[in-house]
Amino acid sequence: MSILIYAESENKKLKKAAFEVASYAASIAEKTQDDVVAVTVNADNTGDLGQYGVSKVLNVQNESLEKFNVESYSEILTKAVEETKADIVILSQSANAKYLAPLLSVNLKAGYASNVVELPETESGFQVKRNVFTNKAFGMAEITTDKKIIGLSSNAFGLHEKEAKAETVDFNPEISDSSIEVQSVDKNTDKVSIADAEIVVSGGRGLKGPENWGMIEELAEVLGAATACSKPVSDMGWRPHSEHVGQTGKPVASNLYIAIGISGAIQHLAGINASKTKVVINTDEEAPFFKAADYGIVGDAFEVVPQLVEKLKEFKASNA
To answer: 3-state DSSP call for residue 164?
Structure first.
């Protein structure tokens, strides 16, 4: 038997989420004495998965699959499960994986638990701890089916390197013609994507206009962070919708989330609650964000942020 993971890639490069899923699977495999097998699609650096406990990589090379197609990808994973006789399948909680997991669950007649944050408890059954109520609470779920699918919450387990090597083999099963046609893909052109970012710097209406976004970008550049925004900002066209984070936008599970000029509407907080450390800068000391933040600065962003950038640059220069 084996544990199968879907290791996502973009532009032929494996994402951070792929290595986190591999680390999680490897920790389960230590208890079950199973091998960890990864499925990749059009990825180049598949050997890197071995550093996180993967013993074998089934690498699909198919130009027609350059754009994500949930029907084709679910068929590939279904056939990979048949090939490896895997009982457990693990995916991330990316946008693509959220589409993929339910369809795969139907194909395999497998129970699916999303937003999982810890290793499963197997002493009596198979139970997993999940984020629920938009990350405001935890719940335990039991998967009773023979095959089990786990959606690992972003940044919940971290990366854990192992002393192992991964064997990469070609895996190109026949797949049916899909009824889905991908016509175009809109991508965020940021240097760091929101989904993979360890740090996110986000701005709201308190910045007063798009012409003031330079200081957000400067702070993000110093920190090696992705830039993001609140829904009103994207609605007004100050920033692209690809940067909108929140319950109705992109969820964020970064190590550090800095909110500048964002009051903290419940929909925004629901989308960033999974971030480990939250910092808010706002002139309104009654802003709801301060109740959710780990650290807060009551002050004018136009004064605070330039000073913060200056201090960070000095710190980096003295520790270079």
So the answer is: coil
Buried b (16+ CB within 10 A) or exposed e, 122-133: eeeebbbbbbee
Q: Burial level of 232, CB count in 10 A (0-12/13-18/19+)?
A: middle
| Residues 134, 199: Cα–Cα separation, whole Å | 20
Q: Which pTM value belongs to this model?
A: 0.81
Determine the angle formed by the axes of helices 95-108 and 70-84, rounding to 10 degrees. 50
For residue range 278-290, list pLDDT tens digits in order.
999 999 999 999 9
**pLDDT of the residue at 155:** 84
Handedness of CA 312, 206, 134, 293 (dihedral sign): positive
Look at residues 287, 284, 283, 312 and name the one whose alpha carbon lies nearest to residue 299.
283
In tens, the pLDDT along 7-18 reads: 999 889 999 899
CATH for the stretch 2-170: 3.40.50.620
Contact at 8 Å (CB) between 275 and 254? yes
- Domain extents in the chain: 2-170, 199-318
CATH number of the 199-318 domain: 3.40.50.1220
